[in-house]
Amino acid sequence: MTEVYKHIHPSKYFNDYINQDVRPDGRDFDQQRDVIININGITSADASAIVKCGNTTVVCGIKLELARPKAEEPDIGFLISNVELLPLCSSKFRPGPPSDYAQVISNIVSDIVINSKCVDLKDLCVVTDKLAWVIYCDLVCLDYDGSIVDACIIALITSLKTLSLPTVTYDNETEEVKVDTGVKIPLQVHGLPVATSFGIYHKLPRNIILADPSAYEEEMCGGIGANLIVCWNKGLFCGIQKFGGCNLSTEDEKRTISLAKQRCKLVEQVIETCIKNGEVK
Amino acid sequence: MQDFKLKPMKCELNYLSKSDGSAILSQGDTVVLASVNGPMDIKTVNQSIEKATLEVLFCSKEGKPSVADRYKENIIRHTCETAILGCLYPRTGITLTIQELENYGGLLTCAVNCACLALINSGVGMRHAVAALSCCVDGAGELVLEPTHAQATAARARLHFVFDSREKSLVTGFTEGTFSEGTYEEALARCRAASDLVFAFYRDIVSNYCHVI
Amino acid sequence: MKVSVGDVVLPGDYCEEISPKDEKSRVVIGPGLRKEVDHVYITKAGILKKKNPHTYWIDSYQKRYVPIRGENVIGIVTQKAGDIFRVDIGGSTTAALSFLSFEGATKKNRPELQVGDIIYAKLVIASKDMEPELVCVDSFGHKGRLGVLNDGFMFKCPINLVRKILNPKCPLLDSLKNEWPFEMAAGMNGRIWIKANSMRESIALGNAILGAEFLSDSDIKKMCNNIAAILAGHVS
Lengths: 281, 213, 236
Hints:
By secondary structure, chain A is of the alpha+beta class.
């Protein structure tokens, strides 16, 4: 019966839940979904992580390559991230070239990583103007259930933290490159950016803030994608994006910021524990 | 209230003769042209039975479409969707085309303001007008409202906000770089106060022609 | 922002004056105004106008037509489909015009209308959720001024210009009608059809109408005199 009701009156169905101060999946408005992280699941990649936030599942694989730096910036390497939303993860996505939404998510994720300066691109340079590392971060979504940016950032940062670069020797005269995979130096990752998504649901007299919205909640809050993404990194913001949904008042904005800070601590702990456990093995 | 100085704005409405609404706007040296067509017939697949479908096309000066352009389109589309009363025109489409003409910083804020003026000109029913402003944090940690191109490129962080004309609440926001919570709040408050100037400018532009139509 | 009658308004402004004075009085809000929970909000940029006792609307600039019930429009027949004609009236979808909604039309006696004909018709159904429907008769079955417009010349103009020239206070048509004979039909969808004795006169008429868009009443009179003088050959 409820399934029929949900399809006939989608907004009323959702509104009935909100009026009871509960969300369709039983969470409180501020409550996040559990985060599960698994590292180095893909042995063929240089570093990898699988992250689950509720149902949303993202796999991140990192591949290393050597390349010549750009002539205008000879002393920095490259960090290239890409998010793929395949038809596998949700019926919303069609096969074919990346959709507009996938491109937007890719852009947000790479912006957050670059803005947070968690990887100093100068560390990636091996020999100025000759040789630098390229870190390809491929993020593939396996199951899309909202708050995709949060999961992507966690997966990406966890993989970067477990990544170590092989030592490279470069002969200036013969231009010969020797890669020694036996001796690896862990990549320096400064800080730990964590993104938190919010949905803003229009309701009188005041709008409702939904932390970590699911795909269904995102749809109810005005279309695909979260309305507000706050990214916090060791005491500084490295990105606050708000698109669409309802307009945000000052008090709501303060609440979201404090929620984002709380969540940041939790996620940090999860990532640290996960990496520590991985090292023990 | 503080005295704010924005870049000089110049605008001409109804710049294009064939589109339903158009505007050319210059903020400082940045120039953007926007055109609105609709509500009109669109493909059945894209029709929504609840509201008008808004399609945004951003054409950069180079002409090559890129991922960054998709991001800009996304921002403008989301912003304008909240501003338009789409429920008045179900099963129709509204197309918004934005052409970058000159970019000397603040391109995206200029594009959002220009889009809003073009929508006002087209006579599409709107919930509220929107005003976009930008702010940057310079090397010394000071806030600069409406930075010049040189200031913006040298800045540690750039923050952009879009406000509605009803309650001045935040419609859209996007940031680059890192900044503290205090900076964010001050930038938001300052841009919010300065948005009055943009709305006053809109009113000025509209009053130029509306007494004789 | 709070505004009052006669002000230049922007979308998102609200007007507190628009409210019923007592329980019995009714307030009519026209285009560009929308009632929400607490106030009447403005949805279009323009000037807030009032007609006594309680009618309010916004005079705004607009080119694209959104069908409104009861308005007379000029359409172009684009297709004959079964019992109806499809007519392009400039809105988001074409309007339907039944074979039977002409004076004296029966199942056997069909009106002779070709694809490409220009018709002057009234909208009887116009709602955002339905296809608009046109008729060429009034409720008594007479055609009145509606029907096919033969010969002549049709051009498009902004919708606010049509409203302006149809305003009884506008001096444009008053000034022109004494200068030379012509026929004219103005559709509320921003289309004007004119017919004069010569090509020269048609062009002069069309230019006079389009030229009036951003002129004040006194300037319109001047312009009309000017055009009449040129047409009569006094000025070259």
